[in-house]
Design goal:
By secondary structure, this protein is of the alpha+beta class. It is 50% helix and 24% strand. The strands form 4 sheets. A 3-stranded antiparallel beta sheet has the order 3-2-5. A 3-stranded antiparallel beta sheet has the order 6-7-8. Strand 2 and strand 3 form a beta hairpin.
Amino acid sequence: MDRLPKLGLPVIIGVILLIILIVKSTITIAPGKAGVLYRTFGGGVVTDKPPMSEGFHWVLPWNKVYVYNVRQQELSEKMQVLSSNGLQIGLDATAWHQPVREKLGLLHQEKGERYITDVILPAIRSAARSVVGRYTPEQLYSTKRDAIQEEIFDETKKILDKQYVQLNEVLVRDITLPPTIKTAIETKLRQEQETLEYEFRLEKAEKEAERQRIEAEGKAAANRILSASLTDKILQEKGIQATVELSKSQNSKVIVIGAGNDGMPIILGNQ
C-alpha cells in the first residue's frame, strides 16, 4: 500500500512530461499563412523544401516554426519628396504586396520577420524619391499622376523581385503641394483655360465670317450667271407660259395680250 503513492508520482510526472512533449511537437498553421522550419540540430532554416502549408503538423520539440502571412497585404506610407526644381512634395502611397511563397525560407533566412519595414518600405521610399524628382510641381498636380504611379510601381518591383517579395500594385492616393505653389498653379491653369476658350470663340467667329463670305460670293456668282442668261426672248417665253397658267385659274380676270412693255401681256382682274 505504501508503494502506490511512490509509484503514482513518477507516473503522473511522466504523463505531464509526455503531454508537454506532444504539445511542443505539434503546430497548427492558420489559413492564409505558411511556416518556415528551423532545425536546431539539422542545418538551421530549411530553404530547399516548400514551406509548411495550412493545417496540423508534427515537429520535433527542439525545432521551431516561424509562421508568415502569405496573403496580399497593404502598406501605406506618407512621405516627403523633392520635385525636379527642389520643392518639397507630400506623397501618400499604398503598396499591395505578399511574400513569394516558394522563397519563404530564403526570405526568413536573409531578411527576417521584419522584412516589411526593413525591405519593402525603404524600396517604396527610394522609388518615390527617384520618380517624383523627375517632374515639376505643375506636372505632379495636373497631368502626370498616372505616369508617376506606374513608374513608382516599376522601380519598386525591380528592387523587391530580388528580395523574395511579390509587389502587386502601387497606388498614389494623394500628392500635396505647398499652398503657395498650388495657388499659383491653379491660377495659371485657369488663365490657360480662359485663353483656350477665347481662342475657340475667336476661331468660331472667323469660321462663321468665312462661311458667310463664301455664301455671299456664291450668291453673287449665281446672280451674274442668271442675269447673263435672261435674254428678252427668254423673258417673253416665260411671260407666255405664266399667262397660259393663269388663264387656267378659276378666278375671273381679263388678259390683254401684247399691252405691256416689250409686248408682254397685262393681267387685269377683279380678285
